[in-house]
Amino acid sequence: MAITRTLAALTLAATATLALTAQAAGAASGAWGPYHAPGKAAKASGTLTATGEDHADLPTADVVSISGKVEDRTRGASCGWAVFRITYRSGSNLPNKERWARDCSYGTPKPFRFKYRDVHQVELKVCSEAEAAKPSLTCLYAGTWKTLYLSR
């Protein structure tokens, strides 16, 4: 019993050390999704890679790369939207901006790829709504955002 506890403690310590080493190297990556719009009318999934994390003053990643696909899953006149809210460092402030990808063709997912610098947080919302130049206020402000990345 004591040996099992000791081995468990050593395994936990080794795992924590590896995690700290990866964090110190300043890289984080992984797959996200799939996330769906209400009623599964749209779907988005992809990958996110953050490099060069800096924790000196405001924790940010030097570069965040996001790629994936958004898919309209309705046969009607709607579109699938993957809306990202990127919070970035500007001096000592943390403003944010939206970036989106849209797919209005049922059964043909649309790929997207973009990069941002000095990123603190990346959030996602998936919506299904009419074709437009940009997502509606309902898409942007109703419901909850899914956190894909947060620099700590």
Structure summary:
By secondary structure, this protein is of the alpha+beta class. It is built from two helices and seven strands.
How is the topology of this model organized?
Elements: H1 2-25, E1 27-36, E2 42-54, E3 60-72, E4 78-88, E5 96-103, E6 110-130, H2 137-141, E7 146-150
Antiparallel strand pairs: 1-2, 2-3, 3-6, 4-5, 4-6, 6-7
What is the C-alpha radius of gyration, as a whole number of Å?
Answer: 19 Å
Outline: elongated
Number of helices: 2
Mean pLDDT across the residues is 84
The assembly state of the depicted protein chains is single chain
Helix proportion range: 10-25%
Give the biggest beta sheet: 7 strands, antiparallel
